[in-house]
Design goal:
Layout: H1 5-33, E1 39-48, E2 54-65, E3 69-71, H2 73-83, H3 86-101, E4 109-113, H4 116-119, H5 124-135, E5 142-146, H6 155-168, E6 171-177, H7 185-189, E7 194-197, H8 199-202, H9 212-225, E8 229-232, H10 238-246, E9 251-252, E10 261-262, H11 263-272
Helix pairs in contact: 1-2, 3-5, 5-6
The structure holds ligand C2E and calcium ion (3 copies).
Organism: Qipengyuania gelatinilytica
Protein name: EAL domain-containing protein
Domain EAL: 23-274
Length: 276
């Protein structure tokens, strides 16, 4: 697998084959993951930048494969979209997170990731309604995190969905801002309550040679002017915390405060007051 042209070719080709094989395995197993109870939700705190008190938990799905261990959601969510089962998995995640949020000893918000494919499907608003009804979660405690890719679809339909969700009293956050084909026109009409600044802007922001800190300030300024909150994602070090706080983000999330933790641990930390 090392050295000249032919060896290299073989290397890449078997690598590709391995990749395809792995993918087929994941596809087969993912179809059964729900029935086999292999999926769960983890929770990561989002803190206020002035007090470091927890304002919300973001729910992050986990798949523990019996042989492979944890499979990254980046990987299996994409597979679920291709297989056409994202709607099922997404609905399960939505319900699970709403049901678990009502068990918390404090009325914090729960921020739930919604895939664009799921968001633009007919019946998504009904899914949200039914999750709220089944769990009795107050709508204002539910925040849906969506990415710019929802704007690729039918604009009128997307706008209608936004308005119906706002009507329900649910909050909307624009996730991974600045990484896709960001367009300021998205912010013009969409009723977002929050913008999440992608962690790629935090990485390296403490290095004076790059523009990340300036971009962060600009996004925060824009969000402020539009009356939206801002979350800086992926804060890992005290230096990064200092920097993003100086740039004015209203909320912070990252390993510095906590990694995503299982539901029982989140409850325990809240009860013990470890998380305020
Ligand atoms: P995301 O929504 O942008 O979530 C943030 C990701 O960054 C999470 O990865 C989180 O664990 C990680 N993270 C948080 N703080 C830090 C930090 O300080 N440093 C670093 N390096 N990483 C940090 P995770 O849980 O692996 O999720 C990856 C992506 O998978 C998510 O990105 C989201 O796009 C997707 N995803 C996760 N759960 C769900 C879900 O329930 N539904 C849908 N549709 N997508 C989900
Ligand atoms: Ca998210
Ligand atoms: Ca994000
Ligand atoms: Ca992401």
């Amino acid at each position: 697998a090392k050295g000249g042209g032919r060896g290299q070719y073989r290397f890449y080709s078997s690598d590709l084959e391995e990749g395809a094989k792995l993918r087929r395995l994941l596809e087969e197993d993912l179809r059964d993951a729900l029935d086999r109870d292999e999926l769960s939700m983890y929770y990561q705190p989002i803190v206020k930048s002035d007090t470091y008190n927890v304002a919300a938990f973001e729910s992050l799905i986990r798949w523990e494969h019996p042989e492979r261990g944890f499979v990254s959601p980046e990987e299996f969510i994409a597979v679920a979209e291709d297989l056409g089962i994202i709607n099922q998995i997404g609905e399960w995640a939505l319900r699970k997170a709403c049901m678990q949020a009502v068990e918390w000893p404090v009325d914090l918000r729960v921020a739930i990731n919604v895939s664009a494919t799921q968001f633009v499907q007919d019946g998504f608003v009904d899914q949200v309604k039914s999750a709220l009804q089944a769990s009795k979660l107050k709508p204002e405690r539910l925040e849906l995190e969506i990415t710019e890719s929802v704007f690729i679809g039918d604009a009128a339909q997307t706008q209608k969905t936004f308005l119906e969700l706002k009507e329900l009293g649910v909050r909307l956050a624009l996730d991974d801002f600045g990484t896709g084909y960001s367009s300021l026109s998205y912010l013009q009409h969409a009723p977002f309550d929050k913008i999440k600044i992608d962690q790629s802007f935090v990485r390296g922001a403490t290095d004076p040679d790059n523009n990340n800190a300036a971009i962060m300030s600009a996004i925060v300024g824009l969000a402020d002017a539009l009356g939206m909150e801002t979350v800086c994602e992926g804060v890992e070090t005290k230096d990064e915390l200092k920097l993003v706080t100086a740039r004015g983000a209203t909320h912070i999330q990252g390993y510095l405060f906590s990694r995503p933790i299982p539901h029982e641990e989140a409850i325990e930390s809240l009860s013990k007051g470890d998380l305020k």
